[in-house]
Fold this sequence. Notes:
The protein is mainly α. It folds into two domains: 4-60, no CATH class; 68-159, no CATH class. The protein has helices spanning 27-34, 39-42, 56-60, 68-86, 99-105, 110-123, 127-143, 151-159. The chain is globular. The protein starts with 26 loop residues before the first helix and ends in an 8-residue tail after the last helix.
Amino acid sequence: MRNLFDCGYPCPCGFFGDPVKPCTCSAATVTKYQKRISGPMLDRIDIHVEVPRVDYQKLSNDRLGESSAAIRARVQAARQRQLERFNSPTILCNADMRIAEVRQFCKLDDASDNLMRAAMSQLNLSARAYHRILKLSRTIADLAGSEQIQTPHLAEALQYRPKGVSV
């Protein structure tokens, strides 16, 4: 797990989880190092993504991903949906939603509700984490052009929670 305060290093030597170079830290050292950020602080970070080493073949490959222009258009369309949804001078995007708006605009179908119930139980999520996951799910749905939060949107939001940390 990499975090904000240690320049992206997952442990003191910097190689914990690296597929090429072995970590020289003890398990206790890694655990202590990774717990330097408290659960409540981690709870306020919506997206946690581990970025592994990229090998040469992938970097030198001619295959192109989605263009910046296409991504920009998708983000602009999602932001426009949010502006129209809220039609409010104080709530401009999903991140600005309060609990009342989360309840109104982040309703889950039965399958998604079951997934969220299981996640709350298994990951020991706080109320703050619950609402942040719903807001992020709403944003993922907006980026996908979906009017409703669907199970894949919720599953994607859940996978951005920090690994191995109960907050």
